[in-house]
Amino acid sequence: MSGSMARPSPEQLLTLLKSRRVCRSFTEEPVSDDDLRMMTEAARWATSAGNRHIHKFLVVRDPAVIHNVRTVSPGMLTAPPALIVILTDLEAAARESLQLEHDHANWMDVGTAAMNMMNMAHALSLGSCPVTSFSRSGAAVMLDLPPHLIPEWLLIVGHPAPAPRPRRLGANAPKPVAARDLTWWEQPGRHEP
Ligand SMILES: Cc1cc2nc3c(=O)[nH]c(=O)nc-3n(C[C@H](O)[C@H](O)[C@H](O)COP(=O)(O)O)c2cc1C
């Protein structure tokens, strides 16, 4: 990256990352082409194993199609105004001579693209939520996919509904997790100096 390139300060970036939360409740306002373009642009710039880019990003806004996908997606708790489906393109994988059953990098590339899109959605004041609890074969039918395109990850997207998520209190409150709880220095179990 060019040294003169404008970039967010570390504090600004961390603020963005820390303030993103999954959103499962949306207004009916449509998501604009420009916003969806920004999200797929962010996905394109996600780091990709071997720089292979074997995934495609399918933008879906037709409410009937989204409804149908939802019928095979128990993890999709709400019908969003937009959906971005991350697909593995088996033809692209074959061109790269990849044997996907032995290649975990495929999954990691799905995650890097998804995370970039979620952070971009947040920067655009949109809400998003991953959905991985869905039937691959069912979603492929609902999306009318050819056999070489495998749906791996659904990302629901929309303008967040104004009502805040109900906070869980007391024993049901989520246990806060700090980076320190997850990070060791030099040796497993050794916390930061
Ligand atoms: C791999 C993966 C799969 C997920 N699958 C679903 C899902 O099927 N349905 C859903 O509502 N949320 C799903 N989530 C969202 C998580 O529940 C959510 O990210 C987690 O509770 C942390 O919330 P946060 O992202 O707001 O910090 C998934 C998240 C990840 C990373």
Protein traits:
4 strands, 15% strand, 34% helix, 7 helices, 193 residues, NADH Oxidase, four-stranded antiparallel β-sheet, alpha+beta, globular, binds flavin mononucleotide
Helix and strand arrangement:
Elements: H1 10-19, H2 33-44, E1 55-60, H3 63-70, E2 82-89, H4 90-95, H5 105-123, E3 127-131, H6 136-142, E4 149-158, H7 179-182
Antiparallel strand pairs: 1-2, 2-4, 3-4
Helix pairs in contact: 2-5
Bound molecules: flavin mononucleotide (FMN).
Flavin mononucleotide binds at residues 21-22, 24, 75, 77, 129-133.
Q: Could you characterize what this model shows?
A:
The chain has about 190 residues and is α+β, with helices and mostly antiparallel strands. The protein has one domain (about 15-165): 3-Layer(aba) Sandwich (NADH Oxidase), CATH 3.40.109. It is about 35% helix and about 15% strand. The protein has helices at about 10-20, 35-45, 65-70, 90-95, 105-125, 135-140, 180, and strands at about 55-60, 80-90, 125-130, 150-160. The chain has a four-stranded antiparallel sheet, sandwiched between helices. The chain is globular. About 25% of the residues are buried. Bound molecules: flavin mononucleotide (FMN). Flavin mononucleotide (FMN) binds near residues 75, 129, 130 and 131. Flavin mononucleotide binds near residues 75 and 133.
